[in-house]
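Entry for the shared binder. Reason: the reviewer on the internal report wants the predicted structure included alongside the sequence.
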Amino acid sequence: MLAQDDARHMFSYELRPRGLFGRLRRYGWSTLRYLTQTEVHTYAFSVAANAILSLCPLIVLLLTIIRRVFRSPQMYNVVLQLLHDYLPSNQDFVIRNLQFLASVRGRGQVLSLLMLLVTATGIFLPLEVALNSIWGFKKNRSYIMNALTSVVLAFACGALALLSIYATAQNLKVLGFAIGDQNFVYHGVSFVVMKAFAMVTTIAIYFLIYWLLPNGKVPVRAVLPAAIVTGLLSEAAKYLYIFLLPYLNFHEVYGPFAISVTLIFWSFWSGMLLLGGAYLSAAEHADRVEAQKVSAE
């Protein structure tokens, strides 16, 4: 939370930092202090719980749309590969069950859409409150307006995901025609292509959240670098989390519920990274505004 008196103290403007490491040195400590606040953990856990509730409906809808609308085996395989890369553990078990749910005709897809709309509000409502607090916006949206904003953001994120999947599938199709799809070069290049499109999509989603969700005007210049840095850090944090999973021994503590716990903790840390990136961008923006005021005087 950036109160005016704290902003003057924490974000002094005599020497503006340059480069990523300069920004981290300048604002890193205050960002860590922000992330230790109890309300930040409350926001992150709320986002994590609703993110887990929305994961299955989202994937079921994506697989259903790709199978019944696009009718593209390439796009379907891209989704499965992205899931295998994104999930921190038990990928085969989760993917197999999601494929089964998407293949069953009935009310499951309709219920998945309804659940996605409900859980989207559960994700974006606490995020809006947190981002408003970070940027100093005093008034939150009403529940109805937040729900509408959440639906718009949910569909925008889904559209970005579909666009990324389509572009990845088309590029892999062309690559397969050019060099064949049964050699190690194809598998290596296809992994790089898939990761590149996934990273761009992740950064774009972070940018939409940082830019559109706060209930006030947020400069593009302030949030675009934060979206890029947060997207890259989240990817690195995922592999660090996967590396640490064997040492956490969730299976010994939670038994059959270890998969859910693994996903909840990963979603929690992702939420913390998102909020940390937002605070960092607001801190630097406050510094820039103060510097402009002084130079104008």
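Summary line for the report: The chain has eleven helices and no strands.
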